[in-house]
Amino acid sequence: MTTRTAPEFSAKALGRIRADVQSMHAYAVQDATGLLKLDAMENPFGLPTELQAELGKRLGALALNRYPGSRGIDLQRALAKHAGMPAGFSLMLGNGSDELISLLAIACDLPGAAFLAPVPGFVMYAMSAQLQGLRFVGVPLGADFELDEAAMLDAIEREQPAVVFLAYPNNPTANLWDDDVMRRVIDAQGRQGGLVVIDEAYQPFAGRSWIDRIEADGHVLLMRTLSKFGIAGARLGYLMGPSPLIAEIDKVRPPYNISVLNCECALFALEHAEVFAQQAARIRAERARIFEHLARLPAVKSWPSDANMILVRVPDADRVFAGMKERGVLVKNVSRMHALLAHCLRLTVGTPEENTHMLAALEASL
């Protein structure tokens, strides 16, 4: 009997994997071991000790030997109430917003279909489209990361996208779009029969939301997550929209995609929403303090933020990133994501102590 070596077998097996997948770069998660982790826009505050104990008891009592049941319906109702979802709308759950974007790609995978979004933006819009075989059309933002209205309208008319994604605020630029421009883009996409997804992942830190304006549009979906709310580890996203649309998209959702642990963690968090609201207020206050400090650094340019992150441009992003890492602080080097982000770093807003450490590392690394 001929024995095949592992490398020979692997080389042949790789031929069964799509060439475009093999040419892709995987979503990179930086190793934060031993570092102050300020690269992923996580809420830096944990649960108070007494709530940790209470949550532990609830999780310990769950029937892990059973598939998830009707508790998911309880969570849908709780999220609808928390978000102020309009009457006549429905809500579906995802294992984070990432899964919801992938499900939209599956549901909208008609011949020639495309996703369209401003760039630079959240990388999963393009990645999910590519993995499903859809075209992705990126429309560059303006010099200060504002929506290029003329370019967006032209791209919608030319490409006839199945879905237009509008992140509000945007990642990694952290800014909100102009409401009037948003409205004209939404209307243009509606006229050609496509969907609009308004991604409000960073809503806890933003001054505005589209939740009270989506009722008038039968083609607009609103996507949110509890990751920035404060439980990123629970992986819970949700999509709201007109009931007929949500019912169709929900058909491609895997069964039991939300575990009983995720579900119970989310319900517990919503029951203590005031704790997370206080944490969000602290983060917003720290964001203002960071801006005050950055204004005193002439070598640093920053842009307004309505999220829990701040985009800055420095003279040499690679050198400053490496210098901050040497000083024990991990941020995100986004300078190669898009030409508009040349020499840019993305800073996550942390606790007061973390932010003081981050600012000192930034200043020492310039």
CATH topology of the largest domain: Aspartate Aminotransferase, domain 2
Can you say what the CATH homologous superfamily of the largest domain is? Type I PLP-dependent aspartate aminotransferase-like (Major domain)
Over all CA atoms, what is the radius of gyration?
22 Å
Number of strands: 13
Spans of at least 5 consecutive residues whose pLDDT stays below 50 are none
Q: What is the typical, i.e. mean, pLDDT?
A: 94
Under the CATH scheme, which class of the largest domain?
Answer: Alpha Beta
Q: Termini distance?
A: 63 Å
User: Which class best fits the helix and strand makeup?
Assistant: alpha/beta
Number of helices: 14
In which order are the strands of the major sheet placed?
2-8-7-6-5-3-4
Q: Please write the string of helix (H) and strand (E) elements.
A: HHEHHEHEHEHEHEEHEHHHEEHEEEH
Architecture of the largest domain, CATH level 2? 3-Layer(aba) Sandwich
Q: Quote the beta fraction.
A: 15-25%
How many domains, as an integer?
A: 2
Approximate shape: globular
